[in-house]
Amino acid sequence: MYIPFENLPEESKIWIYQCxxxxxxxxxxxxxxxxxTFVTDWSAHGTGLEASFVVKYNRFIILAVNQEVxxxxxxxxDSSVAFIQSLEQKFSVDLLDKxxxxxxxxxxxxxxxLTDFKRMAKEKAxxxxxIVFNNLVNTVGEWHEYWEVPAIESWHSRFF
Length: 160
What we know:
The protein is α+β, with helices and mostly antiparallel strands. The protein has two domains: 5-91, 2-Layer Sandwich (TATA-Binding Protein), CATH 3.30.310; 100-159, no CATH class. Helix content is 32%, strand content 25%. The chain contains four helices and nine strands. Strands 1-5-4 form a three-stranded antiparallel β-sheet, covered by helices on one side. The chain has a two-stranded antiparallel sheet with strand order 2-3. A hairpin with a 2-residue loop joins strand 2 (43-44) and strand 3.
């Protein structure tokens, strides 16, 4: 069952998928339509999940479930991953590779491999103050507070 993202409790579970490239506005529109269809029918053991999504910066897909109503289970999480894989195929993108870093360069968003980001940190091309996207946050509340943070305040800090 779809619920507007802003109406989800802060404790709602989230999953963040970052794209290896920026989606066009037309692609975002198609993705949002596909997400609405998926989330509306998403269930765990036959019980509908109170769920939502948001697409940010034409690069990130955030899925969320209010686990106070119904917990996401292994099968429901598997179905969400299969859905994300279908988006990867449909748009010829990578959404599941966790060995990449996305960060801000001024107003621009840049996507690099973890190896490249480590090298850039060593070369001082990025700094502790570089705004990174910490995709390891687990809840809507954490997402609001700790998703876009200086590298020194996230797991990226180990590179400095």
